[in-house]
Amino acid sequence: MTQPNIVLIHWHDLGTRLGCYGRADVQSPRVDALAEQGLRFDAAFCTTPLCTPARASLFTGLYPPRHGHHGLAHRGSRYREGIRTLPMLLADQGYRTALTGMQHEAVDPKTIGFDEVFQLDGGGQFCGPVAGLAEAWLAQQPADAPFFLTVGFTETHRDFEVISRDETEPEPDRSELDRVVVPGYLPDNDHTRVDLAAMNRSIARADAATGRVIDAVRARPDADNTVIIFTTDHGIPFPRAKSTLYDSGIRISLIMVPPPAWQTSPAVVDQLVSHVDITPTLVDLAGGEADVDGVSVAGLLRGEPVERRAGVLSMKDQHEIYDPMRTLRTERHKYIRNLHPGPRLILPTDLDLSPTRAGMDADYRLPRDHEELYDLEADPDELTNLAADPANADLLASLRDQLAAELTHLDDAAFDAWAAAEQA
For position 1, what pLDDT does the model report? Predict the structure, then answer.
């Protein structure tokens, strides 16, 4: 099979807030159409609800204890020495590689393995101009060798109303607020509705820019041999989502469209996948192998079944302060182990200053439980912690042991230090 071109489009802080994921108040026609053309993954998860380490897992196939990023690059986090990134691995297979727009893995984007880097000067990598960079690059590439292009947007990170460095939008009007559907884990009031309506506008802008990139891909003579992947880093930038291990923080949009020449039927994939699976999948499609934590799901793009995962891991160490926690998420249940005492939520500054936060009560400051267990079928918003219920003792012990075994295998220093302190 001929090596396919690969185009990876990623937004910021999106979670699954798209029409194709059932968000009726969101206008995202171009991404929704993309989902109808390929594979929409309904149980895809990041490895951490933090920008830098989440993207590092996406671009290495490794969990944070392996790739070394535990916090944010602009706050000093770095890859471990010798880490091989996706553009490096694809270059080994003969690919030309380019980055247009945003990345969050390094202060200097030229250090993470791309042959070419194209970014806007002086600030955010806003979707409209970044789409222009991608269009120009795609128009200039010959069809004589495979390429890997990543397209990164600042959207839908806060501040939602910022369109460019020089332009902002006004607040949403009453009709927009009335159309908003508020998730069950957030307070339903005008504070939250203003916030979500503003994010919906940001989504619409990024969706239109994504459509421009897709059109540029489809205009190429080798479009029939091009894979398009769409994803994001983690959940939406709202309290009890971003920076938490609830599904609202770690469940992500993931769409993979196989090359049209492969004639793979569109499908909705309900099996668990993780960001660590993306790198081995793309290297597999390129004809190579990657020695990483994730597993290739390339078979799905070829219309073949792949083995179902029993669970996925996610973890958090440090956003603005140290706040270590770990989770094992199965198809039915979620187990969270909080390694440090603290309040139920520690909000990053952008969330703490948000309109949504202004409309919340103070319950989020109450002490957190050291263990959390949720039945995701009965309680998808994870509002009822079942860990203290004796009826769940066996399940709790089983998930606790499974998580400990996975983290021990990863040489997770934070977990090992906590376990040692518990035994002392």
Answer: 65
